[in-house]
Design goal:
5-stranded mixed sheet, D-Maltodextrin-Binding Protein, domain 2, 226 residues
Length: 226
């Protein structure tokens, strides 16, 4: 693709501040190769943004956070969508393809603390069974409690004293410039593809596949690029 050709791409993503930071990250990565490309973002509220009562413990690898965006992508409302790669449903929605999985940032989890330490039987906010198991492995006395909402909302609940600690992806803290928050690393496995971003297009959209392949770690790993 000619890197000097002006191209405006309409792009869909969740409306949260974290999602907006993720779109900016993809734009800046792509702009290194194609400085004349511009993004026209469409911010969308998904089921996962509206429904703050359903526990996420049994919802991994569903379209809870992607459904409305992918439906509009299939209708042609925009050319591509940007998702947290860990939020992609399995299998991917029919008619769509991943045109890039970004290198991403730190894939680990952290416990953001309300005070300087976790007291005995501290209440830890998490919405993931996997994270709950890691918390119990860290300290058996810790008490896990469901928490939902944006990163900012979760940290507000922490600061209000509703929790002694809240588990947050380190990638989210980095992207939201919240690395000044007091936290400890949560040992154990993190979610598959955590910290990476997925650019999704309609199947057969060769122009978008060609455009985004320069930031696709799947392509670069197969070709031996670092």
């Amino acid at each position: 693709m000619n890197s000097s050709v002006e191209l405006q791409i309409k792009i869909g993503a969740r409306q949260s501040r974290l999602s907006q930071a993720q779109v900016k990250e993809v734009f800046e990565a792509l702009n290194t190769f194609y400085p004349h490309v511009r993004f026209d973002p469409v911010w969308i509220e998904t089921t996962g943004d509206r429904d703050l009562s359903t526990s996420l413990r049994s919802l991994e690898k569903t379209d809870f956070f992607t459904k409305e965006i992918d439906e509009r992508l299939l209708r042609g409302n925009f050319r591509v969508a940007v998702h947290s790669a860990k939020d992609l449903p399995e299998p991917l929605t029919r008619g769509l393809q991943i045109v890039a999985l970004t290198k991403g940032v730190d894939p680990s989890d952290s416990i953001v603390l309300q005070k300087t330490h976790l007291p005995l039987e501290a209440r830890i906010g998490t919405s993931s069974l996997r994270r709950e198991e890691n918390i119990k492995a860290l300290r058996s006395d810790l008490v896990c409690a469901d928490i939902r909402g944006t990163i900012e909302s979760r940290l507000e609940q922490l600061d209000a004293g509703l929790y002694d600690g809240v588990v947050v992806a380190e990638a989210a803290l980095i992207r939201l410039q919240l690395t000044h928050r007091r936290r400890i690393a949560l040992p154990g496995a993190s979610a598959h593809l955590q910290g990476q971003l997925a650019v999704v297009a309609r199947a057969g959209d060769d122009e978008m596949a060609q455009l985004f392949c320069c930031i696709d770690t799947q392509v670069n790993s197969k070709s031996g690029k670092k």
